[in-house]
Amino acid sequence: MAKCSICGKGAHFGNAVSHSHRRSNKMWKSNIKSVRVKTEGGSKKMYVCTSCLKSGKVERA
């Protein structure tokens, strides 16, 4: 699973609990995109979550 290169956000794990309270494994995936990002040496392709893109922590190339 991919992780955000800026904040480190990745997948979260837990239990899905049904109405009868039976538990099964569940995975919540973060909204992570592959984006070209401006760096000092030019542009670089990175995995970035959409909350980092929206907040302006990353500048697109």
Short description:
With 61 residues, this protein is mainly beta.
Can you walk through the features of this model?
The chain has 1 helix and 4 strands; from the N terminus they run E-E-E-E-H. The strands form 2 sheets. A two-stranded antiparallel ribbon has the order 1-2. A two-stranded antiparallel ribbon has the order 3-4. The protein has one domain (12-55): Ribosomal Protein L24e, Chain: T (Roll). The mean pLDDT is 95. The radius of gyration is 16 Å and the shape is elongated. Strand 1 (12-17) and strand 2 (23-28) form a beta hairpin. Helices cover 10% and strands 46% of the residues. By secondary structure, the chain is mostly beta strands.
Topology of helices and strands:
Elements lengths: L11 E6 L5 E6 L3 E8 L2 E8 H6 L6
Antiparallel strand pairs: 1-2, 3-4
